[in-house]
Amino acid sequence: MDIGHHLDQLGPMLSLSFGLCGSSIGCYIAGLAAAAGMARVEEGQGKFIAMAAMPSSQCIYGFILMLLMYKKIAEGTLSPIGGIFVGLFAGLAFMASSVFQGKVVAASVQATLKQPAVYGKCFASIGILESFALFALVFSLLII
To answer: Residue 3: its pLDDT value, please?
Structure first.
């Protein structure tokens, strides 16, 4: 068993795994709120589904980073240990962004139920949390 080969894969897999876990948790939180919101209104339920899907993007960022890290490690321009640290910390940023984004979506659903006119404005807060995941991706790409 070649432990070095497994170390090569660890960093990229961390970025993907944390991104997937965070997106799952964030979409779970947002989906619960969206389902509750849809049960309270007769029409316009699709807007809650759109909000609930927002935390899913962080898994895509984890996937992109995973692919690029695999390439850099195979080329020898990124050490496996460096890949582990980049994958770990970027993955944690993806995860935190997703989870907190799910919580903001849940609050946004409640706000929209109380005052439907704020629906579009709620995306500002959701987008701010999205930007932190994008920053983590861009900074990680600069590092690797």
So the answer is: 65
